[in-house]
Write a structure and sequence with these properties.
Length: 75
């Protein structure tokens, strides 16, 4: 569920969230994951969010995460 900060509109996931995924990334490895989510409000407005997540494990074994929002639109 998402709630609009400026209008208070509530959007519900159309993709059956929550999603669970397990990955293994070792030191020096990079894992990229793209998410394409769709949400709909009770009045029929649709919110589409397309994001790219990049997980990197540095040489010390520490996880570094970067998320980039590629597209976000309301229809």
């Amino acid at each position: 569920m998402l709630i609009g900060e400026t209008n208070g509109r509530v959007y519900y996931s159309q993709n059956g969230m929550p999603a669970r995924d397990t990955i293994h990334v070792g030191p020096g490895e990079v894992y990229r994951w793209r998410s394409h989510e769709r949400y709909v409000s009770e009045d029929g407005l649709r919110l589409t969010l397309d994001a790219l997540f990049i997980y990197t494990v540095n040489g010390n074994g520490q996880l570094v995460t970067d998320a980039q929002i590629l597209d976000c639109r309301v229809q």
